[in-house]
Amino acid sequence: MSTLSLINLSKHFGRVRAVDQINLDVADGEFLCMLGPSGCGKTTALRMIAGFETPTSGDIRIDDSSIVRLGANRRPTAMVFQQYTLWPHMTVQENIGFGLKLRRLGAQEITRKVSEGLEMVGLAGYGERYPRQLSGGQQQRIALARALVLEPKILLLDEPFSSLDALLRVRLREELRRIQRKLHITAIFVTHDQEEALSLADRIALMNAGHIEQLAAPSELYANPATLFAADFIGAMNLLKADVDQGQLQMGRQRLPMPEDVAHGQAFTVAIRPEDLAVLPADTAAGDGWLGNVEQTMDMGHYRKVLVSLDGIDEPLKAYIPKVQPIADNESVKLYPQRYLVYEGGRKPVEMQRPLQ
Ligand code: ATP
Q: If phi over 0 gives left and psi between -120 and 50 gives alpha, with beta otherwise, what is residue 159?
């Protein structure tokens, strides 16, 4: 049973505000991903929790006790790093048992915990090997076992799978999630890979320039990005600058109904997910679709991606269509935005729905 709280936590390096007044409560047994672009401060935040960096100000509490004055080795945390950090001159079992030895556990108990750790990560029987005799994925599993045998209250992971190939990465993260659920351990996982965060997290703290831009469950973050940064960063999105003309949103020669509850006069941006953009033949009679030209179609396996250029809009719009739909390059089509979000300044976006009749 462990919770983690970051309270007004900041870390400044000279004039760089790497982490700037963040507040975050992580629930017992929660898997929280800190996600964001390079330099947003996620690693610095994690390193402060681990005790490798001293906060400039603010507090870090585990189970409601402050840990900021404790040295890294006295904190109830364990960290898995991006690079396999196994000691090359030690066997796998020595690597896993090292932290337990430092804690002065008896030899028998260490042996028992090491074999439980190996079992947990699916590498029973590998104890006698040296790290160089293991694949990258196996080494990272050992690094995970080494962290888990310490029975930390909070497990910290800093891009642990990012140097592995794509297939292995997916396998290992599924495995990690299974183990984390089984042990009911509270985990903070840092990544810049949104797909990883969306597939793993109970909640995602999306970070930008040292602050938390949005804290939400993956589905909520995807469906309702609270800011333009979140809309742009998470998933594919068509972002269109819009003016207001005769009470309607105008983008190039295209129009959309305006939400009622916006403060008029500001600059608007309309955000449309590619899957919310229906693509139909140009001679479709239905309503007021946007006439465009198919620039490119790409087969993506179970669906097709279509790029459609529109009059007066610089970037072609992305749409996803079913594989069976017969749309060819250079064809004239009509686009129908069925759901879109309207952003105005820093205000919360307004959702609009226009299902095709
Ligand atoms: P990445 O994914 O590239 O590791 P990140 O989101 O983890 O990025 P941090 O490593 O936390 O970002 O860095 C946040 C900011 O703080 C960056 O501008 C970085 O240059 C700066 N920074 C980090 N560590 C130090 C340091 N020891 N000294 C000076 N500046 C630092």
A: left
Domain 236-353 fold is: OB fold (Dihydrolipoamide Acetyltransferase, E2P) (2.40.50)
Position 114 scores a pLDDT of 95
Which has the closest alpha carbon to 334: 288, 273, 276?
A: 288
pLDDT computed for residue 264 by the predictor? 66
Q: Give me the residue spans of the domains in the chain.
A: 4-226, 236-353
Q: Give pLDDT, residue 312.
A: 87
Instruction: Give distance in angstroms: CA of 217 to centre of ligand 1.
Output: 25
41 CA closest ligand 1 atom index: 11
Helix axes 136-148, 92-102, angle to 10 degrees: 20
- The separation between the first and the last C-alpha atoms of the chain, rounded to the nearest angstrom, is 51
d(CA 154, CA 158): 13
Compute, in angstroms, the gap from residue 69 CA to the centroid of ligand 1.
Answer: 22
Weakly modelled stretches of the chain, pLDDT under 70: 1, 263-266, 357
Consecutive H or E run containing 305 = strand 303-310
pLDDT of residue 95: 96
* Among 9, 12, 16, residue to substitute to test ligand 1 (most atoms within 8 Å of Cβ): 16
Compute the distance between CA of residue 175 and CA of residue 170 in angstroms, rounded to an integer.
9
Q: Residue 266: its pLDDT value, please? A: 66
Tokens 């140097």 identify what position? 163
Fold of the 4-226 domain: Rossmann fold (3.40.50)
Token duo for residue 107: 């030899």
pTM: 0.92
356 lines ligand 1 (CB under 6 A): no
What's the pLDDT score for residue 354?
Answer: 85
pLDDT tens digits, 255-287: 999 888 776 666 899 999 999 999 998 888 777
CA of 41 from ligand 1 middle (Å) equals 6
pLDDT at 260: 83
Q: Is 52 in the pocket of ligand 1 (CB under 6 A)?
A: no
